[in-house]
Amino acid sequence: MLNKVMIIGRLGRDPELRYTQSGAPVASLSVATDESYTDRDGNKVERTEWHRVSVFQRQAETCANYLTKGSLVYVEGSLQTRKWQDQQGQDRYTTEIKAQRVQFLDRKSDREAPRSQGGQAQPRQTPNRQGQDQDLGPAFPSEAANMDEVPF
Predict the structure, then answer these.
(1) What per-residue confidence (pLDDT) applies to 113?
(2) Cβ-based neighbours of 48, under 8 Å, separated by 6 or more
(3) CA spacing 20 to 30 A to 9: which of 58, 64, 106, 135?
(4) Which CATH number covers residue 55?
């Protein structure tokens, strides 16, 4: 069986960091992906999909320290559905991406210094192993010119 999810999108809000009863860090991300296409009447249609992402352990703390609303990220993981009860005792379900990998895609110059508990910025490391910034192009198809002419 295969349960694999890969998305590239932007955070809709700052990550929310919390800790389990055993003290393990968990970060919740809200990631938006979008697509645009031309319908049969020739109208351009843009659609945004929102994804809930849960990140665990040390990677959760890294996301909480370095990511902010608007950050561009690549998320790789699996779909997971959880059951919980609301205040009225009704069973509720939520499906989210359980992240195994979160890669920061913003150029280093586009990011601000990481947040810390004391409010002071800390030195940060570049996510690029070669230590060079990369121009990854537009984040979404709608940000590029002439994307309607792409054959896929």
Answers:
(1) 59
(2) 32, 33, 34
(3) 58
(4) 2.40.50.140
